[in-house]
Amino acid sequence: MDATIEWLGWTTFRIKVNGLVIFLDTWLDRPEGMPKVLDIGDVTEADYIFISHAHFDHLPGADKIAIKTGAHVIANGEAINALRSAGVPEDQLIPVAGGERIPLFTLKTRRAAARGEVGIVPGPPGTPARPDPSLAAASVHVWPSLHCLLPGSSPADLPEVMDTGKEYIGGASQYACTLDITFMLKHGLLKLSDHMPREAMDEGMRSFVDWIDSPASKCSSPFDGGQLMFNFLFGEGKTVLWNGHLGMYDGILKTLQPQPDILIQAIAGRGNLNGRPFDGSAAQFAVKLSKLLGEPKKVIWCMHEDQPVSPRRLVLAPATEAMEKETSSKVTTLQLGALDRLF
Question: pTM for the full model?
């Protein structure tokens, strides 16, 4: 059976490959006005859930899917703590920070290991049974990454439209970094209902505030917990790197092996290079990232759809044009909710 990928909105994808069902982020239950292509209640199978970071537009839903399907969740410590508080069983939670290499097994193989029907790796007393790596259907290498930054020094400075071709030079301050994102979320975006009267909001913003104030958003944190990227090894010529924000440590990407055949890359925001604002456009940042990775054959964008708060819209064309003009990478545009071949 051909490997498939579905873009389910924002940075959320479902991949089916080598007998595995894999979710990349799980933001399926979203504010009214944003497209919903898969009801979280309709998800009946998942072997693994990978979470890029712990924010409200990436982590929510992982708890419900994991509890329902028995999927293992691989995420940073902040996300794992939120999932634990939401009731996900401890033996389904795999905390990582970057540098880990993990064999991936079908749920059927994991359950066979728990019953003692297949070989397992040794461990201390009480350790959940882990299948022998020879039974793995694939593997993943986990690497540290970075959340994007935003232009300006406050939410009031955010444009209605982010253009991936617009260059930003210099920082709002000498200390501009992801801590600004944490404070903006904790004291601003996640408390919009405290800062703005409802009658001053348009319909889109009201829908966002209603969602943020609802139980659906609570399995998350204003602290990203440490952005992660995941390099999946599905077979010869079938390596897929998912980087769920416009950030990178160039020292990691220069030496990352195996280099990906496919790059799934978030394209919103201002680039974050080694913890500092990138001087240039999102398009230029993405080109630099592709070149560091050896110019993957295929690039798939994410995080580029409209949203109910600023920046409400993203101009994607400059990033696609720059990628295909300045590298050998070719951009594949996925339609929301459509089933596509991965390779």
Answer: 0.97
